[in-house]
Amino acid sequence: MRQAKRLNNGNGVQERLLEKACEIFAKKGYRDATVAEICRGARANVAAINYYFGNKETLYAQAWGVAFHRSLKAHPPSRGVRADAPVEQRLRGRILAIMERLADPKGYEFEIIHKELANPTGLLAEVMRQSIEPVRQGLASIVRELLGEKASEEQVMLCQMSIRSQCFDILVRKRHSRMFKAAGMKAKLLPGRLKIEEIADHILQFSLAGIREIRRQIEADELNGRNSGVSGKTEEKPAGKAAVAI
Questions:
Q1: Between 3.40.50, 1.10.357, 3.40.30, 1.20.140, what CATH number should domain 75-246 receive?
Q2: CA nearest 177: which of 189, 190, 191, 185?
Q3: CA-to-CA distance for 233 and 109, rounded, in angstroms?
Q4: Residue 127 near residue 61 (C-beta atoms within 8 A)
Q5: pTM to 2 decimal places
Q6: How far, in Å, are 17, 24, 145 from residue 61 at the CA level?
Q7: pLDDT in tens, 135-168
Q8: How far, in Å, CA of 43 to CA of 86, rounded?
Q9: How many CA atoms does the CB half-sphere of 16 hold within 13 Å?
């Protein structure tokens, strides 16, 4: 895949193309988005994509990368919690950051991934692997600290999956909210008066209780090979053509 030119054009054309590409790829997916539509929205000549990015494929990967890193800048994975803070506080920060990214109306990276999973191109696999892995490792280190040294890689991975899965409910609710509003119906992102922080606290407490029980079973040798990683280390890889960007 051809490398895009650096963001150094004085007239802002490249930035506008990336901004509009994020929006349109998130709305329509790679296959249904057109170069002409992106250029029109960016107030750019159709030749600009070839000049700055080489092709639509490179623009697609670059747009997802821009959306992802913009999301991390707005909602840092640590949520500002110090590295020397108690592990429970660090886990809460991670959970809250994930949920804030998912709830952000400008969180185009998740919308792009949703379209990619529904109609895979394989074009995001490498950029996602490079971008997501450091974030995954940050959560993994916290989970491992909570589970203890005897925990296997598989057990750490499964606990991470459980935590992330709870966070993703808010993305489903966001989609439902948009669907209801489009139909002229009233809809709230969260039920009642609940706030994201309150849901994050619930996920934290629920997850800590589960992790503590699993740690107890590990240390008491009660699992008898179940989820024990006896087959060796399990490497967490992107699911299908793309991984979930958290």
A1: 1.10.357
A2: 189
A3: 30
A4: yes
A5: 0.80
A6: 13, 13, 34
A7: 999 999 999 999 999 999 999 999 999 999 999 8
A8: 50
A9: 16
